[in-house]
Backbone:
């Protein structure tokens, strides 16, 4: 697993990317926190739910949510595990391929840009997923030893 770096000043990567018309992506609000956390825990993991909590429990949440037919179908976050880090991100398995993940990625990257970041780090990316980020937002591999997840204590969930 490697960290990736994406330049946020490349506005051509982060503006105007949308999911299908019937999917709405919004910055999360606190009244939706419990439902978002439940969605993440049910469809992904407790670890990701914990990261999403960190993104939700800020005065200006750093979590975005995709809604389809009135239901939560995806999420993305940044500044959850560490400042300047994008992730996690997830989309309901039955709705993949509708550009929801791409739109959630761009919503978060644009949020990072507007928060003053020049670059974002996509942390702990699996080698099967790295090509998606490289193609979609021009991310490059950071070739340094170690990362923020080295502090992660395994076996707590």
Residues:
């Amino acid at each position: 697993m490697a960290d990736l770096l994406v330049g946020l000043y490349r506005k051509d990567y982060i503006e105007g990317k949308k999911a299908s018309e019937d999917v709405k992506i919004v910055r999360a609000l606190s009244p939706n926190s419990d439902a978002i956390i439940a969605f993440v825990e049910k469809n992904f993991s407790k670890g990701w739910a914990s990261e999403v909590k960190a993104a939700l429990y800020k005065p200006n949440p750093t979590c975005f949510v995709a809604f389809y037919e009135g239901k939560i179908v995806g999420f993305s976050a940044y500044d959850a595990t560490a400042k300047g880090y994008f992730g996690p991100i997830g989309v309901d398995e039955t709705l993949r391929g509708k550009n929801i993940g791409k739109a959630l990625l761009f919503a978060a990257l644009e949020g990072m840009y507007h928060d003053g970041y020049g670059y974002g780090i996509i942390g702990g990316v699996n080698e099967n997923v790295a090509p998606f980020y490289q193609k979609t937002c021009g991310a490059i591999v950071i070739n340094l030893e170690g990362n923020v997840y080295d502090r992660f204590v395994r076996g707590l969930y």
